Amino acid sequence: MSKIGQWEYAEPGVKRKVFQPGVGLMMMEVRFEKGAEGYEHSHIHEQMSYCIKGKISFRIAGKETIISEGETIYIPSNAKHGVTALEESILLDTFTPIREDLLK
């Protein structure tokens, strides 16, 4: 369970902080050490990720896309996706509807 506004480790070299959610929208900041991975997974939520710092390789439904500072990427509902940090990086992830799995 994520505690709102507190850092927690998600995977090795990956930590996240969930912000206070709205009614149907939520955000979290995710920080990656160089080479750290966000393991492949899927969820019903639509996701937009904004790269605050660094460079991240996204694998979405088998296709690789690299984004850098100031760029965004869209992840459709139920698409299998994972990431690898090509350098120390920070993402701002936004989800709709709310990721109840991160709050319980």
Overview of the structural elements:
- It is globular and about 30 Å long.
- It is built from one helix and ten strands.
- The chain is mainly β and 104 residues long.
- A six-stranded antiparallel beta sheet has the order 1-2-3-10-5-8, with no helix packed on it.
- This is Cupin domain-containing protein.
- Residues 29-87 form the Cupin type-2 domain.
- InterPro entries: Bacilysin_H2HPP_isomerase, Cupin_2, KdgF, RmlC-like_jellyroll, RmlC_Cupin_sf.
Summarize the structure.
It is built from 1 helix and 10 strands, in the order E-E-E-E-E-E-E-E-E-E-H. It has one helix at residues 100-103; strands at residues 7-11, 14-18, 26-32, 37-41, 46-53, 55-60, 63-68, 72-75, 81-85, 89-96.
**How many helical stretches?**
1
Cα-to-Cα separation, first versus last residue: 5 Å
| Strand percent estimate | over 45%
- Main β-sheet description: 6 strands, antiparallel
What would the principal axes of the Cα set say about the shape?
globular
Low-confidence stretches: none
